[in-house]
Amino acid sequence: MNEEYDVIVLGTGLTECILSGIMSVKGKKVLHMDRNSYYGGESASITPLEDLYKRFNLPGSPPESMGRGRDWNVDLIPKFLMANGQLVKMLLYTEVTRYLDFKVVEGSYVYRKSKIYKVPSCEREALSSKLLNFTEKSRFRKFLQRVFIYDENDPTTWDGIDPKKSTMKNVYDKFSLGKDVIDFTGHALALYRTDDYIDQPCLETLNRIKLYSESLARYGKSPYLYPLYGLGELPQGFARLSAIYGGTYMLNKPIEEIIVENGKVVGVQSEGEIARCKQLICDPSYVPERVKKSGQVIRVICIMSHPIKTIADINSCQIIIPQTQVNRKSDIYICMISCAHNVAAQGKYIAIISTTVETSDPESEIKPALELLEPVEQKFVCISDMYVPTDVGTESQIFISRTYDATTHFETTCDDIKDIYRRMMGVEFDFEEMKRKQNDIFGEDEQH
């Protein structure tokens, strides 16, 4: 291990594995280490089920009714992939898709007045949705028509809406959209966690709604994808990518010291040996002195023998409970998957609730979501601190990822990856460059 590397990566969370893969593709000499014996870090999928019981300190073993333990792959962090989103582009352009299989999530729903409704995301659904009354349907349809043709680079499509000056409130007012319509538009289509966006320039929100619609258009049932065998397959896929390009992986390696000289990282010590490096990427747990707590997330993993009863008989879905519906400041999310995704025993379902903690009694905050799932055979409750780096890394060359938030998609994770890349490399991340490099290696004819 007494070698010099361009980049050392600590931790095998998805963020770290993607950056490891990207740096390897760019020709960097990469050493990737993790104190754990498995891939995924905090975003791992736990198998067998017995290990999940141990992780949450539950007494005894899973009951026989849970089936074989090895049939389970339970995600610790619930997330779906937007079908036209940034992570899917990274997977496609880096050819990591060759290691993975996906299924389309079967439905996207929103909670309103204690009931669950399908999210209307196109004109046809808007006209038939029970979520909207007759007047709302007409106004929302016109709003969607305008959003779909909106192009920030073509002023002829703006219709008086300046993308950098008009706020989203101005847009909603222009189409006379009511509070309930604004609720599901901002939270179930644009996927905001709070209402802070309403008073900000509208460009990002319009782009988010277009992303939702474009993702939905790819497969029809919902805008979300989920990998067979769990999210733990994602970091492993990018680890394979890094290895193809010469990256070195070492699991089960205790990290004794990150060595800094004159304010700049020069290496990492493990088991008495030192690996030298020019740059370091790591998750917050490796550098507690360089991060600060930004809040908490509660996640509750629920094992059930039935799908969510208020929805049609489907194997997977997302439900968003907008904060205003339950007198909160942030949304509550539910992801449901099942044996159809090779993550649970036959006839079993996994639903994971997540939200940002707002009180001293986090479990009471997720009661509205838990009520939708009952009866629950077994639940696993985790309350995690969220951290953000206090060191941007330009001086120390230590680049620290952010803790996974409560959202059920990977867009914020991808934003973090692109931000770290920009600080490391001094240029913006270029999806097309990744695609060109793959063409150089594998040839145009082999691209999927």
From TrEMBL:
Q: Name one GO molecular function term.
A: GTPase activator activity
Question: What Pfam families has UniProt attached to this entry?
Answer: GDI (PF00996)
Question: What's the protein's topology in the membrane?
Answer: Peripheral membrane protein
Q: Which GO terms describe its cellular component?
A: Golgi apparatus; membrane
Q: Where in or outside the cell is it found?
A: Cytoplasm; Golgi apparatus, trans-Golgi network; Membrane
Gene Ontology terms: biological process: protein transport; small GTPase-mediated signal transduction; vesicle-mediated transport
Source domain of life is Eukaryota
Q: Which InterPro entries match?
A: FAD/NAD-bd_sf, GDP_dissociation_inhibitor, RabGDI
Q: What is its main location?
A: cytoplasm
What does the subunit section of this Swiss-Prot or TrEMBL entry state? Interacts with RHOH. Interacts with the GDP-bound inactive forms of RAB3A, RAB3B, RAB3C, RAB5A, RAB5B, RAB5C, RAB8A, RAB8B, RAB10, RAB12, RAB35, and RAB43; binds RAB3D to a lesser extent. Interacts with DZIP1; this interaction negatively regulates the interaction of GDI2 with GDP-bound RAB8A.
What role does it play? Regulates the GDP/GTP exchange reaction of most RAB proteins by inhibiting the dissociation of GDP from them, and the subsequent binding of GTP.
Q: Which family does it belong to?
A: Belongs to the Rab GDI family.
Could you tell me what this protein is called?
Rab GDP dissociation inhibitor
